[in-house]
UniProtKB/TrEMBL annotation:
CDD domains: AAA, PAS. Residues 10-57 form the PAS domain. It comes from the Bacteria. Keywords: ATP-binding, Coiled coil, DNA-binding, Nucleotide-binding, Transcription, Transcription regulation. GO terms for biological process: regulation of DNA-templated transcription. InterPro entries: AAA+_ATPase, AAA_lid_NorR, P-loop_NTPase, PAS, PAS-like_dom_sf, PAS_fold, Sigma_54_int, Sigma_54_int_dom_ATP-bd_1. It comes from Candidatus Allocopromorpha excrementipullorum. This is Sigma 54-interacting transcriptional regulator. PROSITE patterns: PAS, SIGMA54_INTERACT_1, SIGMA54_INTERACT_2, SIGMA54_INTERACT_3, SIGMA54_INTERACT_4. The lineage of its organism: Bacteria, Bacillati, Bacillota, Clostridia, Eubacteriales.
């Protein structure tokens, strides 16, 4: 007797047997027509028996009840097939279909289904976790790169400078005004850069201004900008000022002690009111900026002389950072020399070195121009052929 005939004759008892199985069972004839299906299978597929019994797998595929059929693969290959198929309900099941032959022809195909929707969900969740881990690793690398960049720009082994670097990174996390003091060439801009890049404003503008380089007559228009036709020679379109340019970010005022009293007064008002008014303008413009100032002057003495406003002094000196001169951190001279030597050898395609005797001379020198002077000397040694 053919298997298909046996199923038809014993349909009720077979139905009861397979309905008590916890895996889905489909049995079709050799043409792919569904002979019997159990409760677990119709529940998994979100179908009813009436929708599938007597229909071929090809028909079910065309109407969208299934998206793929292991039964049809068996009909083509005449051997066992296993697939993972997406159900019309959006779930997934793994189906293994086995052909059973009679007189050399496929008589029935028995398909066993296992609902793996939960497994697929776990797999999807795992993939999400993997992607999240990749993103976190990218962010960690970016953070480490930024950290390396900050540390790399400040070449030092001096304990005081290492403490200052750590302090600058910590200060970056709070939005207070900072005053960096020290002789010319000690690295005040480097510290300001570390503070900005350690802050929440790191992606916003970092505007650097050398106050000593701006002529007195241009200071107001440079800092505040101006409207169209504000004065003779003004641009026809007006101009945005440095305060507006730094909005959302950090404004670094190097040599702040060079500002005139009138500009100091206007700067104080910006710090108090958080708004600016362009030269020739009538409306106030809100600005959100952090001020980092630097000077090589004794501003307390300037306050006593009346050349620097006392109220502005206290506004800027919320967090003071004092940088030591290079002569007080001689252990950095060799380190910095080799650092600059490496930079300029690469820049000028040279292979210059500095011998022990020359290094000894450099370490005994007082370096009144500090790191800036050392950098200049090393560059001249590289390009001049000495060394």
């Amino acid at each position: 007797m053919r298997y298909s005939a046996f199923i038809r004759q014993n349909y009720d008892i077979l139905q009861e047997i397979i309905d008590n199985m916890r895996t889905g069972i489909w049995i079709t004839d050799g043409e792919g027509k569904v002979l019997i299906v159990n409760n677990e299978s119709v529940k998994t597929g979100g179908l009813t028996r009436d929708e599938v019994i007597g229909r071929t797998m090809d028909e079910l595929l065309k109407v969208g009840y299934i998206t793929e059929s292991a039964t049809l693969k068996v009909m083509a290959s005449r051997k066992e097939e296993c697939i993972v198929e997406e159900l019309g309900t959006g779930g997934h099941c793994m189906t293994t279909s086995i052909p059973m032959f009679c007189q050399g022809e496929i008589d029935i195909i028995v398909s066993v289904e296992r609902n793996i929707s939960e497994v697929e969900k776990l797999k999807s969740l795992l993939n999400e976790q993997v992607e999240m881990k990749k993103e976190l690793q990218k962010e960690l690398l970016k953070f480490q790169s930024r950290k390396d960049e900050l540390c790399g720009r400040m070449v030092t082994r001096n304990i005081n400078m290492l403490h200052i670097r750590e302090m600058a990174e910590d200060i970056g996390k709070i939005d207070a005004a900072v005053m960096i003091t020290g002789e010319s060439g000690t690295g005040k801009e480097v510290i300001a850069d570390i503070i900005h890049k350690s802050s929440r404003r790191r992606e916003a503008p970092f505007v650097k201004v050398n106050c000593a380089a701006i002529p007195e007559t241009l200071m107001e228009s440079e800092f505040f900008g101006y409207e169209q036709g504000a004065f003779t020679g003004a641009s026809g379109n007006g101009k945005i000022g440095l305060f507006e340019l730094a909005d959302g970010g950090t404004l670094f005022l190097d040599e702040v002690g060079e500002l005139s009293i009138p500009i100091q007064s206007k700067l104080l008002r910006v710090l108090q009111d958080k708004e600016v008014r362009r030269v020739g303008g009538e409306k106030s413009i809100s600005v959100d900026i952090r001020i980092i100032a630097a000077t090589n002057r004794d501003l307390k003495a300037e306050v006593a002389k009346g050349t620097f406003r006392k109220d502005l002094y206290y506004r800027l000196f919320v967090v003071p950072i004092a940088l030591p001169p290079l002569r007080e951190r001689k252990e950095d001279i060799e380190l910095l020399t080799k650092h600059f030597l490496d930079i300029f050898n690469k820049q000028y395609n040279m292979k210059k070195t500095i011998g022990p005797e020359a290094m000894g001379i450099m370490e005994r020198y007082q370096w009144p121009g500090n790191v800036r002077e050392l950098r200049n000397v090393v560059e001249r040694l590289v390009v001049s052929g000495a060394g």
